[in-house]
Write a structure and sequence with these properties.
The protein is an alpha+beta fold. β29 (580-585) and β30 form a beta hairpin.
């Protein structure tokens, strides 16, 4: 190739048939000191070089590491609840999939698939095209092929093949009954060599990145088999084995991942066993690790709590992939499933839900398991734990409920993904801050109906309800009040009291996030409407000195002398036994034995955050939880509640 009378080499792109005055790195175009026109030949070479770089495939390690979460896999069969979507688009929603050779359009080069040692040329072209189509839609996708070794259809081998497993009478032994399969003679060294040959053909095809070996037990015959396969394909391609919920210490050194086809999730022990095996696999198997956790529905695909539990178990205990699917005994193809919005990587277009993990999981005192990600947090509450209340430093959005609040209730055998409200929820003009300009932006589209097809006003519709209304204003205000940090920080976990818990007359968690109704979590039905009015007795912070006090309205006595620090959450409690009242700050008594009387009994509304009707003398701070008890709590009980 010539440029202004000189030539240079484009290494690896075209044969060097010219005498080269000076060599440059591949695709470098900085040779001449003066700008001079390039010939058409040089431009063509440059374009070809750039295209080659753009289309250069990521390695397996890069694809596994670069993906965002949640991360879902496809086991043979598809998600079938998106009928209007291009099947390739639906498949590419998954970050990992496996299928038999025919699922990729590949055909073995033998009359019986079990005798094949390579693929036909025409099918290789089809398979590579299919792979390219998927990777163009999801560059981080990993593709695997199942290679049969344990059982197979009756025409997989000739009927008289020595590679069938036979009984004493010489008849082929039945295998998977649902498919009408027969067992293969996998202990045979000759057949193990054939399995290894097919595995090598699969990874050499340019279609898949590794192989799946189904029906896995950790016995010596399978140890010999997986060792033979690994020696044949090397340590670059992936090997996944289906061990259900069992660990495989005997064969772990040859395996990159477990397909955990967990068919039992009816008891707390079933879930504990799955969690234990998944944690073990995340630590013990070969890198890159590609563990795949699947559970099945109990009643229907709408067992959403089971789907969320499976997803968050995978997110908190591994860097793997998850799937929630139909039970195998159903008279339909196995592993069919829905695609759930909970699995979407984006909470809204252009905004990631989780991103990548920031560290290992955290196990809380109430056995809640959480894990922090770049843009959110995954939480898993195992079966048997009971419902838990999660308290966050700043309001966060629950992916399960769509509610934004400081506190969220998470049932057991369930999980959730909590997403930071910042920045996408309130930075409406995308200038990096939340300010009056954003408020004006929201006001401009007030009460407007949003058209998501055209995108008009969708940025102001923060709760994605289709209308810009008070709920959006409430969410905007939450971000405005709590600040602009993207963190999702859990600061407390507490067991949720059951209905009509002894000692609780009313319990107001105050986690609605919007509206004028405050729900009573005690189970006694004392829901409240936010309103300003008069009161008969009060807990207050003095406007002139910031001192805490407990007093009867318009009368003495009163109790109060401690000034709490500004800008920090405080737990304040007052215990009254009918004679004296004791004040507690963060669980510690700070005033005791003061005689007190509530005065005559009468009806009066409860006011939170103000001293009188109409919001007179408002409280300049934040209230997170209020509880009224129908018994006098002891000092240890108050200390326990303060710790939550």
């Amino acid at each position: 190739m010539q440029t202004a009378g000189k030539s240079f080499r484009m290494t690896g792109m075209v044969p060097d048939r010219t005498r080269t005055a000076k060599a440059y790195p591949p695709c470098a175009m900085s040779a001449p000191s003066r700008f001079k026109a390039l010939s058409i030949g040089c431009l063509t070479g440059l374009l070809f070089c750039l295209l080659a770089r753009v289309s250069h495939a990521q390695t397996i390690q890069e694809r596994v590491a670069n993906r965002n979460f949640p991360s879902v896999f496809q086991a043979w069969n598809r998600a079938d609840n998106l009928p209007g979507e291009d099947p390739a688009v639906t498949t590419a929603r998954h970050d990992l999939m496996w299928h038999v050779a025919g699922g990729y359009g590949l055909r073995w080069n033998a009359a019986h698939d079990g005798l094949g040692v390579s693929f036909t040329a025409s099918s290789l072209a089809s398979g590579r095209s299919y792979r390219q189509n998927l990777l163009s839609r999801n560059p981080n996708m990993v593709l695997l092929m199942e290679i049969r070794y344990r059982d197979a259809p009756g025409d997989y081998l000739p009927v008289d093949s020595p590679w069938w497993m036979r009984d004493a009478a010489g008849n082929r032994k039945p295998g998977w009954a649902e498919g009408g399969y027969y067992l293969l003679n996998y202990p045979s060294a000759a057949f193990q060599a054939q399995v290894a040959t097919q595995c090598k053909a699969a990874v050499d095809s340019g279609v898949v990145d590794g192989v799946l070996l189904d029906w896995w037990n950790d016995d010596n015959d399978r140890l010999n088999l997986v060792r033979t396969v690994r020696n044949a394909i090397g340590y670059g391609p992936l090997i996944i084995v289906n061990s259900n919920q069992r660990k495989v210490p005997n064969t772990a050194r040859y395996v990159n991942g477990l397909f955990m086809e967990v068919y039992k999730t009816g008891t707390a022990q079933d879930w504990r066993e799955a969690a234990d095996t998944l944690s073990w696999a995340q630590e013990q198997l070969l890198e890159p690790r590609v563990n795949c956790l699947e559970t099945w529905f109990h009643q229907s695909r709408q067992d959403l709590h089971l789907m969320r539990a499976t997803t968050t178990l995978s997110l908190t205990h591994s860097n793997g992939y998850c799937l929630f699917s139909d039970p195998n005994p159903l008279p339909v193809p196995d592993h069919l499933h829905n695609w759930y919005p909970f699995w979407d990587k984006e909470i809204q277009p252009g905004r990631l839900k989780l991103g990548k993990p920031l560290g290992a999981r955290t196990v809380w005192q109430d056995k809640l398991v959480t894990r922090a990600f770049e843009y959110g947090m995954a939480a898993y509450n195992a079966k048997g734990n009971g419902p838990l209340t999660l308290r966050f430093r700043r309001p966060v959005l629950s992916t399960a409920t769509g509610q934004a609040a400081l506190r969220h209730v998470l049932n057991d055998e369930d999980g959730d993904i909590y997403v930071s409200l910042w920045p996408g929820d309130a930075d409406l003009n995308h200038d990096g801050g939340v300010d009056l300009v954003d408020f004006a932006w929201l006001a401009r589209s007030w009460r407007a109906r949003c058209n998501y097809r055209t995108g008009w006003c969708s940025g102001s519709d923060l709760d994605r309800s289709g209308t810009v209304d008070a709920r959006d204003l409430s969410r905007f205000a939450l971000v405005q009040v709590v600040g602009d940090q993207p963190e999702v920080r859990l600061v407390g976990v507490a067991a949720l009291p059951s209905a009509h818990t002894a000692g609780s007359s009313a319990h107001y968690p105050m986690n609605e996030g919007a509206g004028r109704t405050v729900g009573d979590a005690s189970g006694n039905g004392h829901d409240a409407i936010i309103n300003g009015t008069s009161i008969r007795w009060q807990v207050s912070i003095g406007r002139d000195n910031n001192n805490l006090s407990f007093s009867r309205y318009g009368a003495s006595p009163w109790l109060g002398w401690r000034r709490p620090p500004i800008g920090q959450w405080q737990h304040v409690a007052f215990a009254f036994d009918g004679t004296v009242v004791t004040m507690y700050l963060n669980g510690q008594p700070v005033g005791a034995g003061v005689p007190f009387s509530l005065g005559p009994c009468g009806d009066a509304p409860l006011v939170l955050g103000a001293i009188a009707q109409g919001g007179v003398q408002p409280f300049h701070g934040a209230l997170d939880e209020v509880r009224l008890c129908d018994k006098t709590l002891s000092a240890p009980e108050i200390l326990t509640r303060a710790g939550r």
